[in-house]
Amino acid sequence: MAPSKIKQEEAALPPQEVYYLKETPTPLTPEPFYTNYHQGVPIALDIGASSFKVGLTNANEPNNVFPSVLARYRYRKKPVTVTIVGNDVYRDPLLKTSIKSPFDGPLLTNWDYVESMLDYTFEHLGVTSNNGKLNNPIIMTEPVGCPLSQRTNMYELLFEAYQAPKVTFGIDSLFAFHANSKPNSDGLVIGTGHELTHVIPVVGGKGILLQTKRIDWGGNLSQQFLARLLGMKYPYFPSKITSDHTTNMFKDFCYILENYSDQLKGFLDMPNLEQNDVVIQAPVDLSLHTVKKKSEEELAKQLQRKKEQGRRLQEQQQQKRLEKKIQKQEELDYYSKLRDEIATISKQEQLDRVVDEGFEDLGEFNKYVKNLEKTLKSKDDDEDEGPVDPATAWPLVDIPDDQLNDEQIKEKRKQKLLKGNYDARERNKEIQRQEEEAKLQREKEEIEWRERDLEDWSNSKRLKVAELIGKHTEKVKLLESFKDRKSMAAQQRMKNITDLANDQSVGASGNASNRKRRRAAASIDNDPTDTFGANDDDWGVYREITNSSLEEDLDQISKQIVAIEEDLLNYDPSFHHEDTFSASQTFDWQNLVLHKFVHGPRPNLNLALQTEGIPAEEIANHPEIILKNHQMHLNIERIRVPEVLFQPHTAGLDQAGIIELLSDLLWKRLDGNFNPGGQAYNLIQNILITGGLANLKNFDKRVQTELTGVLPVGAPLKVRTAKNPITDAWKGMQKWSQDEESKHSYVSKAEYEEYGPEYIKEHGLGNVCLR
Fold first, then answer.
1. Lowest-confidence range among 79-83, 389-393, 713-717?
2. Where in the sequence does UniProt note compositional bias of the Polar residues kind (predicted)?
3. Which CATH superfamily is domain 31-170+739-771 in?
């Protein structure tokens, strides 16, 4: 498609909004310190794989929310290592390359990092002590079904390192449910975490962990999946895409379709694509990519350098030829002397001498010496060749043989050969001169014709182009027919190959046994019955069984079409680039799914410039091309990545999706009673979605729509999203710390020392002990 059409189409479309790649922003202010610290007030620690939410429960909001990362920096001048935690790691660009997390998947694995982050937490909470101990109870989150080793290490850290008076653990999604529901409520919690997603039924305010279901998918895996998709979509993207970039793209642009199967059908249709396609621009400095055009003086110097290089190469080649000639002359002198020496000895002694020199027999030796003489003589003749005077160059040609002796007759034959070569060269020069004159005459007549009647000249050229295009189409069809083994062309080619293999195409006669005996008695070079090649038409069989001739014809026709179209573009004002044959062969990008998937709802400028015939180097340095090469189009990825929650098999997970888990839970694991008073009836009236992925657009609507299809008609289904999916777990911990239940749910230091790390006190929002 030509640029003129592209500009017209883009003018009819609104400009696309371009978004730049986002990294984690540098915090403007340092992490705040808490100013209302009191001993004895419980400290709520929501430790997640994504972020820490911490604060004393005498406040309504967590005091500190920071990412679960740290970095260590070692000063070169002083042997001191500094540990930097949370948002502070983003304040120095040098620290971003050394960011680490204490988590491996959903579990804590590096307890040195955990201790450093807890030190940072307690410092910013203003914790003070007059006895060297932490004098505040600890409420902390842990994963569903927390392993014993995980809780053991945390007990040791809190009780033995910090000397905490008492500790209790709970599940973050259940704390979020507690913050968003009335006391002792029934419901279902869909907790979407950084690594995992859980579905937990809640009866009477207590989580039923024996019926809890899990999907191995979360926010971190979502951004990794998005990164892999973009890596396959843009394998040669010039800028590096970091995890920060993909995380922000996922948060800002991904969403869930309310009706995936129906809305997906027309997702890449042009009207929908205008709304669904998002352009992401990577930063690029055009000044670094722009190549300055060279001045005439620079071009002249470059040409002079090329000429100088050519001259040096010629001198080197001449020197090599001279060295080779000297080497051959030395060989000839040596072997000529050897030939004179062995002339007087016996045949057997001659054979022994030539074998010692590396030859098989005397015949090979004599042949090699003659070839050396012939080669050196021909080179001498070429070097001595200069201007020739036909009147005096060959004096013996016109003298009859009876007037010459034997030596002169031999010389006459040589002169006749030289004269024939000279006459042939002169004839060729004359033919070339006549062809050049005819070409100049045709060009002159065509110019006069074009100036005299431009319309008639243009019509003639257009007819010629149409004729060539017809031939081109026929050749292409024939070339394509070879791919179908049932076509006439393919069958004829196979017949020719078979005939050639059976020696039928070379006119061989006799049965197979005779041919076999002849081949056994004759080599490839001296078979007396092999007459293949004596007639030039014999070689046409190879052109019939290969596609090379067709490809050569196509290439020749294409060159003729391009040459005529260039004349039309230069002189016919009504002939444009979009009228050329190459433009007609380009695809309709609006109907090509791959083009819309990669380039969005706009034409590809790169292909348009190629169609116009602009050199590849100029296209690569075009400013608009450079910008577009640093762009990514998010369209189908926006809905494909979140869809894994509902269809895990699309990401390679052999698990059930959220709706399937909810259906199985309500119908089979619980009582399946959707009448008033039934357990399932009470649960479906309070389905809460919490966690980081709860911020995805249409999450609650999708669950409401699909779950309605598996429930009885009229079932009182209600799906809602947590007020603040990120911090509601901490708020639930703060709210629970005021309840009577919390006072009996702590494990004291004395109980830990007596019963060991296996001991826990069960409560409605935490894990249970399976005995």
1. 389-393
2. 497-507
3. ATPase, nucleotide binding domain (3.30.420.40)
Q: What is the pLDDT of residues 346-363, one digit of tens each?
A: 888 888 888 888 888 888
Q: Report helix, strand or coil for 516.
A: helix
Separation between Cα atoms, residue 679 and residue 183, nearest integer Å: 17
Residues 238-251 as b/e (b if ≥16 CB within 10 A, e otherwise) read eeebeebbbbbbbb
CA nearest neighbour of 608 among 563, 566, 573, 577: 577
DSSP 257: -
pLDDT of residue 509: 43
pLDDT of 29 reads 86
Secondary structure (DSSP) of 167-222: EEEE-HHHHHHHHHS-TT--EEEEEE-SS-EEEEEEETTEE-GGG-EEES--HHHH
Paired strand residues for 688? 189, 720
Residue 492: pLDDT band (50, 70, 90) is: low
DSSP states along 604-640? -HHHHHHHHT--HHHHHT-HHHHHHHTEEEESHHHHH
Length of the chain: 771
**Cα dihedral value 110, 112, 115, 119, nearest 10:** -130
Q: What percent of the chain has pLDDT over 70?
A: 84
**Averaging pLDDT over each range in 381-395, 546-560, 599-613, 620-634, which range is the top one?**
620-634
Average the pLDDT over each of 113-122, 515-524, 615-624 and give the range with the smallest value: 515-524
- What is the arithmetic mean of pLDDT over 268-278? 89
pTM over cut 0.70: no
Question: Would you give the end-to-end CA distance of the chain in angstroms?
Answer: 73
Q: Which residues contact 432 (CB under 8 A, 6 or more apart)?
A: none
Partners of 44 in the β-ladder: 55, 139
574, two tokens: 């009504």
Q: How far apart are CA 87 and CA 67, in angstroms?
A: 6
Pairing of strands 187-192, 687-691: parallel
Whether residue 232 has pLDDT greater than 90: yes
Look at residue 28 and tell me whether its pLDDT is greater than 70: yes
Greatest distance between any 2 Cα atoms in the chain? 141
3-state class of 713 per DSSP? coil
> Are the C-beta atoms of residues 126 and 34 closer than 8 Å to each other?
yes
Phi, psi torsion values for 363, nearest 5 degrees: -60, -45
Banded pLDDT at 508 (limits 50, 70, 90): very low
- Integer Cα distance of 611 and 287 in angstroms: 26
Residue 336 has pLDDT above 80, yes or no: yes
CA–CA separation, 394 and 391 (whole Å): 7
Helix, strand and coil percent figures for the chain, each rounded to 5: 55, 10, 35
CB of 479 closer than 8 Å to CB of 551: yes
Stretch 412-418: mean pLDDT: 79
- Hey, what amino acid is at 373? E
Whole-angstrom CA distances from 579 to 66, 570, 587, 695 are 61, 13, 14, 51
Name residue 239's amino acid.
Answer: S
How many angstroms from the chain centroid is the CA of residue 333?
A: 64
Residue with the larger pLDDT of the pair 617 and 586: 617
Nearest to 202 by CA among 220, 222, 229, 175: 175
Q: What is the 3-state secondary structure (H, E, C) of 376-429?
A: HHHHHHHHHCCCCCHHHHCCCCCCCHHHCCHHHHHHHHHHHHHHHHHHHHHHHH
